[in-house]
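Reproducibility note. Readers wishing to regenerate the assembly model reported in the main text can use the exact inputs given here. Chain order matters: entities are listed in the order in which they were concatenated for prediction.
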Amino acid sequence: MISSNISNEALDIFRKGLAHFITFNEAEWTEFIPHLNYKVIKKRDHFSIKDKVCNDIGFIVNGSVRYYHVKDGTEITGYFSFENEFVSSYKSFLTQQPGTGYIQALEQTGLILISRKNMDMMLSHPLFGYKMERFGRLVAEHYICCYEDRITSFITETPEERYLKMLETTPEIMQRVPQHYVANFLGITPVSLSRIRKRTLIYA
Amino acid sequence: MISSNISNEALDIFRKGLAHFITFNEAEWTEFIPHLNYKVIKKRDHFSIKDKVCNDIGFIVNGSVRYYHVKDGTEITGYFSFENEFVSSYKSFLTQQPGTGYIQALEQTGLILISRKNMDMMLSHPLFGYKMERFGRLVAEHYICCYEDRITSFITETPEERYLKMLETTPEIMQRVPQHYVANFLGITPVSLSRIRKRTLIYA
DNA sequence: CCAAAACGTTAACAAAAGATAAGAAATTAA
DNA sequence: TTAATTTCTTATCTTTTGTTAACGTTTTGG
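Running the prediction on these inputs yields the following structure tokens for the assembly.
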């Protein structure tokens, strides 16, 4: 879709978020904007669901989402994304294969969307395809670093250590996310997280 | 370093490995080769160590390596890489910050190396910088997919399920890697892995 | 505003995993 | 080859975690 009626406020937030990775000049930005869409997802509605290809990568302008899988009929939450972060069922988006999990809004969430088709158009764009490739590389590398930390924590830390480190890294998480989702995120049961909190006396 | 005396055999293996991501024409390849180095690491020697910046990304022509952290004086192995795979302390290489772990050769290992400096030169190269950016993006995206699977397995699967899935994905691993390293990789103790093998009667 | 659903804590019990140590087998190095 | 080291298994004991269920509280939706 080559058109855009996204609010200037949302676009400003988006542009500031991108600045962590790359800076677009005015000509490039003008070319960029028509490749974007805006969407509001209501609380509990899904951004991406199992067995369907995730066609968009989103940038969260406001709100939050959780990623979850269903195993033996039970939901298991693996991750959260908040304002100024990207959201996508990455493997599905990148490989264009059906996803294995769900992404659901934890609250009403406003998103700037880039479809796979528009992304590919921009990556091959004569004006700024080169810069878009760099942008894509830097974003991907950023997530590699995040994922590396997360895997290392599963290998080297106990659940209790993961809980305490999470409170340092993301102090607001217990306020913003139901505790049983956080427990899943830490790789333990809700009952177990409740015990850790009682044991450490750290409820932040 | 702008020179190269890497064997044609190693270069062929490397070029075939890259073909999973991108194909270089002859002019590009001719430009590529002088940015490469070759190194053989003896068994038990280190490719990368804690508190030092990892300056290279390697492509394993032959051999294998393990990634490990040291916690409370004990080594904990988090991952392995084999022939035709890349190896690096990625976060350190990508951010140019000191690494938190070690990468050690499990056996004598031959590597084609790209230094950060040479990588950056190629990413900005007038002839094929655009293609190199795409190459870098595709490699990074590939690792995002791998990491996503690994994190999902920690969240949704039991150690026993991880063990069985690993045997499907990498059947040769128990033959090539000491079992207590594999146990760490699965996020459990060596004693626990030994029990799982006895319990399931699957020793493949 | 009320009823239903979701949430967090706690308890009791079961299952799994960690810690430690001993011993046998395999590998490595001198 | 031999001695030392590493590796894997097994056993015992302890700790942690999982499971299930009950209870009170909070949140949600009509």
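We highlight two features of this model. Residues 129-156 of chain A form the longest helix (28 residues). Chain A has a mean pLDDT of 95.
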